[in-house]
Amino acid sequence: MQSFTKAANALKVPQPSLSQSIFALEKELGVTLFNRSTNPISLTHAGEIYLSKATLISDLCDDLTTQIKELSAMQTGKIRIGFSQNGYNMLPDILPKFCKRFSSADIKISQLFSTLKIKQMLLDDEIDIGMLMLPIDSALLNYEIVKKSMAYLALPISHPLSIKFKSKNLPKISIKELKNEKFILPKSSQESRIIFNKIFSNAGFEPEILCETETFDIANAIVASGVGACFSISELIKDDKRDKIKLFDISEPSLAKILAIAYKKDKKLSELASEFMKMAKEC
């Protein structure tokens, strides 16, 4: 404002009190903040530095106040989360961490066995966000990617190919070498089955299906028992099955598995939902 009088009026304090406060501050700092000999008055170099830092501190205090208020709102907020078992297995720590951090919030969690079911519940406003594997074929949903992994061909450790490549990690083979193998595959209603069917078609054979399942857990368990082949993700193989399964790279980019958190496009995400996504990406 370039005038102590105008500044005092704006602050609704007596001008002498404002001048005394500034003199006291200058004495404490040991520098002069204002050029009082100029008309209008101006900041000294020290004054410019002080103003810059004071503005930064003020902005930080405002941000702190905003974040504290948002955190308080989240602690008493409400959120409904849907997740697939495969989605949970890829991020097993997110739900307990989230529930612990926001223990006073109204959190409802639903385990769903079908990506299609999660999508429908999002569209019907039965859940706010859903953890599922891409692709999501819906123009009415948005999503944010939280984790990427690769699926590999899984064989029993006793399989001839596993014995042959015992010392190699993720040995490369052709899917054609397994045309006589029995496979454990997702049910035909699952979107990942379309990807697997295309892989077999490109290889020129139709797989013999031993079992159709909705989860990696069952497929992994069957292969670990010494029977069949499946497609699996390393993170989804339980510790007691790891030494009974051998993973192979069949050089198939379509086996990339992407975990995403989806939400309805025309629905504004709550602070609680946004924080869940942030935490998921950090896990």
Automatic annotation (TrEMBL):
Residues 1-44 form the HTH lysR-type domain. Keywords: DNA-binding, Transcription, Transcription regulation. It holds the Pfam family HTH_1. Gene3D superfamilies: 3.40.190.290, Winged helix-like DNA-binding domain superfamily/Winged helix DNA-binding domain (1.10.10.10). PROSITE patterns: HTH_LYSR (PS50931). SUPFAM superfamilies: Periplasmic binding protein-like II, Winged helix' DNA-binding domain. CDD domains: PBP2_LTTR_substrate. Belongs to the LysR transcriptional regulatory family. This is HTH-type transcriptional regulator CynR. It comes from Campylobacter suis.
